[in-house]
Amino acid sequence: MRVSVKWLSEYLDLSDIAPVELADQITLTGIEVDDVTLPSLTLDNLVVGEVLTAEEMADSDHLKVTAVDVDQEAPQQIVCGAPNVKAGQKVIVALPGAKLPNGLKIKKSKLRGVESNGMICSLQELGFAEAVVPKKAEDGIYVLPMEAKTGHSVLPYIGLDDAFIELDITPNRADALSMRGVGYEVGAILSQKPAFPEVTVSEDRSENISDYIHVSVDNSQDVPVYKMRVIKDVTVQESPMWLQRKLMNAGIRPIDAVVDVTNYIMLEYGQPLHAFDYDALESKTIRVRRAEQDEKLVTLDGQERRLNPGNLVITNGEKPVALAGVMGGENTHVTGATQTIALESALFESSVIRKTAQSLNLRSESSARFERGLNTAAIERALDHAAQLIADLGNGQVVSGVARVEAIQPESKQVTIALERINQALGTDLVMDEVVHLMDRLGFDSETSTRELTVTVPPRRWDIEIEADIIEEVVRLHGYNRLPATLPKSESIPGELTHKQQRVRDTRHFMEGAGLSQAISYALTTNEKAAAFSRVEGEPVKLDWPMSEEHQALRKSLLSGLLDNVQYNVARQNKHVGFYEIGRVFYPVTDSKLPREVTHVAGALTGSRVEANWQEDEQPVDFYAVKGILEEWFTVIGVSDEISYVPTNTYPELHPGRTAKVRWQGQVVGVLGQLHPQLADERDLKETYLFEIDMDALLDTDKEPLIYSSIPKYPGTSRDVAFVVDETVLHETVLSVMKENGGKWLKSIRLFDLYQGENIEQGKKSMAYSLSYQNPEATLKEEEVTSDFEQIKKALVEELNAEIR
Fold this sequence. Notes:
Layout: E1 2-4, H1 5-8, H2 19-28, E2 32-37, E3 46-56, E4 64-69, E5 76-80, E6 90-94, E7 109-111, E8 114-116, E9 119-120, E10 143-144, H3 155-158, E11 164-168, H4 179-190, E12 203-208, E13 214-217, E14 225-232, H5 241-249, H6 257-269, E15 273-277, H7 278-281, E16 285-290, E17 296-298, E18 304-306, E19 312-315, E20 320-323, E21 327-328, E22 341-347, H8 350-360, H9 365-372, H10 379-394, E23 397-400, E24 403-406, E25 413-418, H11 419-426, H12 432-442, E26 445-448, E27 452-457, H13 467-478, H14 499-513, E28 517-518, E29 524-525, H15 527-531, E30 553-554, H16 559-570, E31 577-587, E32 596-606, E33 608-610, E34 619-620, H17 623-637, E35 643-647, E36 654-664, E37 667-675, H18 677-682, E38 688-694, H19 695-699, E39 717-726, H20 731-741, E40 746-755, E41 764-773, H21 782-800, E42 803-804
Parallel strand pairs: 12-23, 13-16, 28-31
Antiparallel strand pairs: 1-11, 2-11, 3-4, 3-6, 4-5, 6-9, 6-10, 7-8, 14-22, 14-23, 14-24, 15-22, 16-19, 17-18, 19-20, 20-21, 25-27, 26-27, 29-30, 31-32, 32-38, 33-34, 35-36, 36-37, 37-38, 39-41, 39-42, 40-41
Helix pairs in contact: 4-12, 5-6, 6-10, 8-9, 14-17, 20-21
Keywords: Aminoacyl-tRNA synthetase, ATP-binding, Cytoplasm, Ligase, Magnesium, Metal-binding, Nucleotide-binding, Protein biosynthesis, RNA-binding, tRNA-binding
Subcellular location: Cytoplasm
Domain FDX-ACB: 712-805
């Protein structure tokens, strides 16, 4: 928002504060100032000149020799190449010694032997952007009004004697996207009440608006407020200099008096307006509705737009005549022949305008204001002001009455807050009278009790709704720089990690010690990746308005993100990759918008664990290497005794013969397996092994405390057993049988041999285990160990149909 200090001075007394100081004050109260511009500091020797004569220059097809009166002893001879220069004009003259914004320094010179004592300037040469220069002057010089005083400084006539403050308006402060909004803000800063001129509409009572137009809306949620006035007998002509000056300095090109008024009112009130050529509507009906699929409209920029039901259109009852809140239609725009104006002022649903502007790439000052919200109390006030101004500038008459549809009325909001709450949040010792005074500066009415303050917030500050908003307003005006620099008061207690936090930290250390590197992937991904590898049924949680197709849904597993990281590294010649990630996954909850969040740990490994060297051969990653990492980790966090592995083929993304569910206390807590070869080929990966474990399930449950004991002083003994069983018998099953029948002195079980082949029946396998026994309180007797060992062999034969070797 480019704020003119002179325009702002129409509402407030700014005589005692410099523009730079004012900008500093605005910054201190929370609205960022990008820049402060004072053109008059660098512009000098620019005066009003009157062209007395303009003769064609000999031997030139475009240059003219002019005699210009600049209120000196004699007219100055100036050579000018502008095609529109002619005698009788008041123009901008840069006298010798002037320095223009483009760095050009004016001095006496000769062009083709003809002396030139200065320069007749265009607006572009004075620093105005091409996009804001009026069309009549875009290819030549700018002609000043005849009342401009010859020889006087030209800066006041084109607004360059002003100062401009560039405000960077955040979405929550859309009220400052208008001069009146900035007026209220600066008034609060300077403890002044802005004075805005009252506007009275002079209506022609001989006719009523109902004779001209009727308005309707299909959906009051799309269009809560829609109002229209009609101005008749208008002569569309050029805007006066004061209006052009304000628009150009705000970055808007003057067009004609009608269009310029709508832009001027938008700048003053923050309320976008649109003017229709009433006769071009060819109807007495205005209907606001959603567009039909593939409905077409040619907008003011000459482009044919193909619309859809997501767009809101203004129609003449049948066909679209404007794209609501974004751009008017070419078929109803105001021209020099227009005599009757239908003027629209409305409130449109911000999300509809935003999506339309984005989809059609039609961002504008108007759409930006609709997107951020409007002051509902200014909708009709701005309409009245604009209608009267159009009538005054075009010698027209405002038809009596307003055609309207109103589903809402402007309402003030009340927010109640305790003084103690304000001081507690800010660390201040403000008293009630001080807070009331701050509210008065903002223009908010307030009522007080012993401890509470009830603030009445007018519609112009629609961003204020809750206690925190009032606290923010208090601290803005009180001064951020005046807040006490004290530490918060709290009871001093020793800090320590919770059990779960400590185990998470231990997990990081362990995984990195096992050779894995930590990865962090996005929680948002595609719908397909979000659902992959999940053991929880149901669709993933999806965003209503995702920023991109790659971030549409919340993940239900960490493995898709880890695989993307592995693929990225392998594609860049990192052949041996091991990643782990600790993060949250998100499961949908019935009858709740919020998902259930669960912390998982996952890993992905491919390539070799050990590369070939002079000491040892290459060791590629395999199922058992990854299983070994998990087994060691389960030991670290104290859950290894109750962990088991069950083969599964229920994960379509994993190898059906090399995948196992991880169970703890009878419940499935994770999965371990090889990436399906087909998916590996699609990602250009070699054998890749994955695991994912539900950490919350393992760490949130209360566990028996670890009890440390000294090393037993009595020796133990061991027994070996080898047997042949069906190849379908699992190692986990063998361990379970041995533990159940091993007796109380059985200390550990270790598989040391597994064989299939020659001398072993097909479909069978030979397994050999070493069993360790120990009594921590006495020396074991031979008969005790033998009895327990025989019981194990008997159980193997009976339960697993084993053949003891």
